[in-house]
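Reminder to self: tokens first, then the designed residues, so the page reads top to bottom the way the pipeline ran.
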């Protein structure tokens, strides 16, 4: 798996809960599979209102892939963790490839005002593979719903002989937040006295894959057990 750097944006104060703005990376991931190269997320789309709000500094799909040692023509399939503008911006350049998304996510993106940039979702020539839950899309590669940030958010699990990798997307903003939920799960299993934080129910399923590394869309840090 290779990280793809699509640039960064500035999350405004009202969205950070810290009293200050925060600069966040925008990351995708390439998965080298015997059946072809898979891309998880495709970068940031552009719109004047979006640019004024988030002040992004973008790397185009082509340039970001080139920096990761790949070309747009090499990508055989796409998974978007969800369909906000900063995760599907390069989709219009990835025509005639299967784009795996949860059906509920695609429905929300198409029907909800200001959910995303519609021209990214319904560009002519895009081909969606709509999923209803967990699915093994390639041998050893599983897409799993991890709702929370959006109703149709999904994460990618890559089983390898030397350990399972998880691309958690924006299931959590940071590796620290993911680690906190894993520890909350552990505390519950250990019978620690209440009150305890309540992790999302799908944390149990993710941890069943016994990941050796978990990576994220907006954090350069990596969670490891």
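Designed residues (225 positions):
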């Amino acid at each position: 798996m290779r990280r793809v750097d699509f640039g960064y944006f500035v999350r405004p104060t009202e969205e950070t809960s810290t009293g200050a703005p925060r600069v966040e990376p925008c990351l995708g991931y390439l998965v080298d599979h015997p059946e072809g190269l898979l891309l998880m997320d495709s970068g940031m789309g552009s719109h004047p209102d979006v640019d004024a709000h988030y002040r992004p500094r973008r790397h185009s799909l082509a340039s970001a892939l080139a920096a990761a040692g790949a070309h747009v023509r090499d990508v055989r399939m796409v998974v978007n963790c969800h369909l906000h503008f900063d995760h599907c911006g390069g989709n219009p350049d990835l025509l005639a490839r299967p784009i795996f998304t949860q059906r509920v996510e695609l429905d929300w993106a198409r029907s909800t005002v200001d959910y995303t940039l519609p021209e990214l979702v319904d560009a002519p020539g895009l081909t969606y593979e709509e999923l209803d839950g967990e699915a093994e899309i390639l041998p050893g590669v599983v897409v799993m719903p991890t709702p929370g940030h959006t109703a149709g958010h999904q994460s990618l699990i890559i089983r390898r002989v030397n350990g399972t990798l998880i691309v958690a997307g924006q299931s959590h903003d940071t590796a620290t937040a993911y680690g906190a939920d894993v520890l909350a799960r552990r505390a519950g299993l250990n019978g620690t006295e209440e009150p305890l934080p309540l992790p999302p129910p799908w944390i149990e399923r993710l941890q069943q894959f016994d990941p050796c590394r978990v990576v994220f869309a907006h954090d350069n840090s990596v969670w490891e057990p």
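The chain has one domain: 2-215.
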